[in-house]
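Section handout 9: paired folding examples.
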Amino acid sequence: MKAPIDFFFDFSSPYSYIANEWVDAVAARTSRRVRRHAILLGATFQAAELKPPVAHPIKREYVLRDFARSARFEGLPYQPPPVFPIPTQNAARLFWWLAETRGDEAAAAWALAGLRAVFTRGVPLHEPDALKALAAEQGLDPAAAEAVWSDVAWKARLKRANDEAVAAGVFGAPFFIVDGEPFWGNDRRPQIERWLASGPF
């Protein structure tokens, strides 16, 4: 079996939204699967002593423009969320709960729903009522979802995911590790495709 593509993402990352739309198809063409890791960019930024791109006055206007342009380039709908960035720990805790209790497909479906909710509908996933509404849309019991994201066990699981990401060298999102090789950013797609098709270069 070929090793999976490890895909690290944050529910508040526009580039993660875009990458999530193409990574499965890219993996499937070379008989790979995608292993998703929901993380918090704040944790990786802190470890790498970085600031979010939108925190830099000169860079902010560029990246806000590039988010929309990059989505258009991929033929994807994009609606800038009214609040950006947002804290996404609760959505990420639900991801890990689904991954470990219902499997990777359920977690991947939640990732897809959450990223699309934020970046095509402007859903404020940091607000409990909005997150519970999304959970209901996905067939989850809203009260049970809230219990999960409040549970110390799933808080600890997300912290472990963040720690593991930092230990693996992750400092942003989307971040991919293919056969031990790290690739950072949605714009690394051509390099990832070439690596998958013909190996190291």
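Moving on to protein 2 of 2.
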Amino acid sequence: MTHEPKTEFTKLFIGIAGMIGAGKSTLATALGEHLGIDVYYEPVADNEYLDDFYRDTARYAFPTQIYLLNRRFQQHQEIIWKGRSAVQDRTIYEDSIFAKMLVNLGLMDARDYRTYQQLFNHMSNFMCRPNVIVYLDVKPEASMRRIEARSRGVESGITLEYLDALYTGYQEFVEDISRYLPVIHVDYDRFHTAEEMATVIEREYLDHNFLRKVTRFDPTR
């Protein structure tokens, strides 16, 4: 997807982070259109491991994580090679949340997790960091309602316990990564549309370009 970005958003890399069903793809689309930048979506429709992962998570946790790591790294490289502004629906950094959670739930072997971490660390030497991460804060119960509403067959086995563990992982992730990267912390329920949110994110980014902490903001400001 090719756009002409606004002058102040040339070579800008935005990462959208958030729970399953948080609305990342919708916001990524809105930001792409609002700012005139490329959009990279999470590999879901063509993920050949996803059905197996939800059917037998313990067996397919490691290959699924490696598949996603590979695909997101591919997106990162494309963003670097093209040299254009882009927004990515779920960052490569978030994969570690899922991997760690799977270990904690006893669904991934600790040895596989170490291998995953080592591979990620090697890849990180060739990755570009986002200029800003937009975190969509959606609670586990809301995430479950949205998952049920969109009725993706492969997600039918997701439990509230799984989402609770995932949410805890996201809170730790945001606290940690905000020490190194600007994070705009969004309470999705405070906005009527993704377009409205995109407008506020644009303003927040321009006002706080060097922000290094989690931020909440008033959409009516």
